[in-house]
Each structure stands twice: as structure tokens, then as C-alpha cells.
Amino acid sequence: MALMMARLYTGNYDVIALRNAYHGLSSATMGLNGQRIYKHGVPQGFGIHHALNPHPYRGCFGSDGPKYAADVAEIIQTSTSGRVAGFFAETFQGVGGAVELAPGYLPIVYETVRKAGGLCIADEVQTAFGRLGSHYWGFETQGVIPDIVTLAKGLGNGLPVAAVVTTPEIASVLSRALHFNTFGGNPVCSAGGHAVLRVLDKEKRQQHCAEVGTYLLQRLNELKGKYDVIGDVRGRGLMIGVELVRDRQTKEPAKEETADVHEKMKDLGVLIGKGGMYGNVFRIKPPMCFTKEDADFLVDVMDYTMSKM
């Protein structure tokens, strides 16, 4: 819906997304994805251009956000008419391996895209509602305000519910033709979403994520000092990535080792996500009721499993 609204509102067609991105598996959003594994061999991606990923650990410019941002301007100049419909980005890549975009990246890109007539869309499906601890929304970490925000997952705490948030002016473009969704406005899911938002505030889950996440990052960094196979520990709050490599200098992905640790941790009672471009990153995004005791159990199991490698 966000993609359609951006094109209708601006009257432009070209869209810029990021390499390593993940935005869904519908025929439209699949084209936005920047990973081969999430692209089926069907027509998709028309009018979509992928920019360099501002990845502080693996990117060619390290943590230099402005250098990555220059690639977006170059794409607009070389691969479009000079006018674009929008720019899509997770403000903190989830499926791509818990990658926080390089500092200073989004402010420059948002300005560039808006000058080219486009809208800025923030995919907050995995980052919203205080999970990052330091901020309620992922886009706040870069000091920007998007034109459209997409939400899901945590909004329903397991219930199927999603939302597209924008201004009345942008949303009004959908009135040009009939638009509806069979499941839209489901009263049970809507009530559940409201309840989740109330509990998040009442129980101060954002503060909780900040406190537990800080503790978990500390323990994981201690583990990094113990095992050379851990190349990077990154993240905020309860959105953390642990990347395994065979060599810290070359950063060769330790894909098989990651899969082995992943399975053995499961056998010991820890279900942990796995992702990243090379399948070598543990994606740690537990429920927001996750405690320090849970964090200790997670790290202890990871420690034991790695000691047996």
C-alpha cells in the first residue's frame, strides 16, 4: 500500500531501496528486497533500484553515512528520469542481520529524495514500539521524519494486524478508485492492537528493552572476547545481531558454523533467529518481556555451544 501511495501521490514511478533489505514477499514488495534468497523467479522489481547498503561492519565505507548517501543521488541521476516516487528503507535492518544504518545516512538521503519529488518511507515492522530501547521508532535514531511509516508484527503481539501511517493528504490518493481489504478493520485484531499499545506504555517496555538490551550486549561482547568466531556484536535494545566469521580480518562468513551452533542451541532450549546476507548472523529479537535471567540463559547456552565447536 505504501508503494502504491507513493507512486500515486508523486506521479512518479521509480523507487529506490537498499541492498540487503527485506520488505515482504508479495509480488510488489519482493521487488524491494535486496537479497537473492527472498526473490522468486517471477516478474518483479519493475522501476526499483537498489542503492549501496550503509552497513557499518560490511559496507565499503564503514560507518561513513554521507558516502553511502551519495550513491542514492547518483542512482537518481543515472538510472531514473531525475524524478522518483520514493525511497524505502528499514531504519534498522532485521532480516538482513540486525544492521543499524550508518550514522548520518538518512538525513542526507531524505533530502535528496524529496528534492527529486519522492516520498520517504520507513519500514518499522521490526523496529517500532520501543524495541530499540533508546527510541520508540527506528527512524528517530537518525533524526528524520518519514512521509509514510509501515507497521506490523509487534503491533498485534501475535495477532495478525498491520498499519500504514501517513498524512491525510497522501492517504487521500486512494480515494481516486475503490480500495478495500477483506481483513481490514477486523474488530478483534484492532482491539488487540489497542491493548498492546496500552500495555507497552503501562509496563514501560521501552525502558525495559533499554535496560535488558544493554545488559545482553555487554554479555555478548564478553563472549566476543572469548571466541574469535564472533566477528561483530551490534544492535540496540532487544534488536541485536551476532555475526560469525571464519577470519576477523577477511570477515569470511562462517555460515556452516552458524548453522551448527544454531541447531545445538535449539537442542538445549534456545530458539534463536538466523539471517543476514550470508546466513551467518544470529538475530536476537526476543519478546519484550525478556528478562536479564533469560539473557543469562541465552548467553550461557551460546557460550557452552561455542566451546564445543
From TrEMBL:
Q: Which cofactors, if any, are listed as required?
A: pyridoxal 5'-phosphate
Q: Which InterPro entries match?
A: Aminotrans_3 (IPR005814), Aminotrans_3_PPA_site (IPR049704), PyrdxlP-dep_Trfase (IPR015424), PyrdxlP-dep_Trfase_major (IPR015421)
Query: Which class of enzymes does this protein belong to?
Result: transferase
Entry's family note: Belongs to the class-III pyridoxal-phosphate-dependent aminotransferase family.
Entry-linked Pfam families:
Aminotran_3
- Reply yes or no: does the keyword Iron-sulfur apply: no
Q: Is this entry keyworded Translocase?
A: no
Provide the GO biological process annotations: glyoxylate catabolic process; L-alanine catabolic process, by transamination
Q: What are the protein's UniProt keywords?
A: Aminotransferase, Mitochondrion, Pyridoxal phosphate, Transferase, Transit peptide
Could you state a single Gene Ontology molecular function term? Answer: alanine-glyoxylate transaminase activity
Give the taxonomic lineage as stored in the record. Eukaryota, Viridiplantae, Streptophyta, Embryophyta, Tracheophyta
- Superkingdom of this protein's organism: Eukaryota
From the Swiss-Prot or TrEMBL record, state where the protein is found: Mitochondrion
**Name of this chain's protein:** alanine--glyoxylate transaminase
Subunit (UniProt): Homotetramer.
Gene Ontology CC: mitochondrion
Q: What Enzyme Commission number(s) appear in the record? A: 2.6.1.44
